[in-house]
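Note to self: keep these together.
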Amino acid sequence: MTIDEIMRTSAVIPVLVIDDAATARPLAEALVAGGLRVLEVTLRTPAALDAIRAMKQVPGAIVGAGTVVDADQFAAVMAAGAEFIVSPGLTERLARPIIDSGVPFLPGIANAGDIMTGLDLGLTHFKFFPAEANGGLKALKALAGPFYQCKFCPTGGITESSAPEWLAFDPVLCVGGSWVTPKGADMAMVTALAKTASGLRR
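Structure:
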């Protein structure tokens, strides 16, 4: 799959922080059952790589790695079976090996300079991060004007209530969100939240 196809699979990509790898597969099953197939496992905990491996076993799940910031992490998540890569920012040193590998890549951008760096590398799909802290939808609309060829996945501060407004903006293909997996939620609740999120449309 291309990064464009992955971003168009569902309107919401759950951003997952997994503390215990034993919970990864049930969580992925609950999200997929609710209609959210694209799952971003962030490299914020020691359990992340094992979580990617476990979630890969779930039929229908498209499992990627987020918070990838260097070449060593890229190698590690690829060995774990990650199907796409998300980074919080964009540097040529990180981007080159990912682009050369052909794996779908969604780098983070925060300003016009970041987008121009991405375009120089042949990229047109970006994560707008942190979305709300960077000025919200108003800021993204200002950036998207001169960069009409680009598509975005805003992440950071997006909520169930604010997601529809973001998704109504044409350059936004999807949003990243953690609200579908609140702390303490059981799997039935996660599936219910995922069903609601999967019903959102651009």
